[in-house]
Amino acid sequence: MSALPSSFSVPPHTSASVSAPDAAELLAFVRRTAQDAALVASLPLDPEGRTWLRLDGPGGSEAWLIGWPPGTGTGWHDHADSIGAFTTATGTLKEHSLAARLPTDGWKTLELSEDVDRTRQLTAGQGRAFGRHHVHEVLNESADTHAVSVHAYYPPLPRIRRYSRTGAVLRLEQIERPEDWQ
Q1: Of the candidates 4, 34, 24, 5, the residue with the CA atom closest to the CA atom of residue 13
Q2: Residue 113 per-residue DSSP state
Q3: Superfamily assignment of 7-181 in CATH?
């Protein structure tokens, strides 16, 4: 998560899960939560910056309801050792991802092969789950419509690695820890 203008908290969601959730459970949670029209409508939307509500996800996972103004995005990043899922609640988001297993540590620059790029258009109700070290960027490419999405991660995010990308070259730029975005 990048530094955002406001943070809000909502009561925990109840969950029957007592063990660590897997990617399918996280995806089911974000889909259910995205259907909660009252919760989605409670998120204040800012015309310039992303806003969010922190949620309690299943089995001790970290979850977020995120508002995306038109033209905003995350930049290339991964969630380190966390698995995750996200679903678009309103609007449309685009995800660019890499279908390649990258080294987890010890590198600064990688040359990517031509066949690793994937793109998904996620409209309201559509989402996806992903594994550890999944490198992607998420964008609201609309010129005039906010998007809202629900995200969940397990274990709670220990760090986010941010990357820059020029053509086939992916470069590690920064490592953020929870204190950087909470």
Answers
A1: 34
A2: P
A3: Jelly Rolls (2.60.120.10)
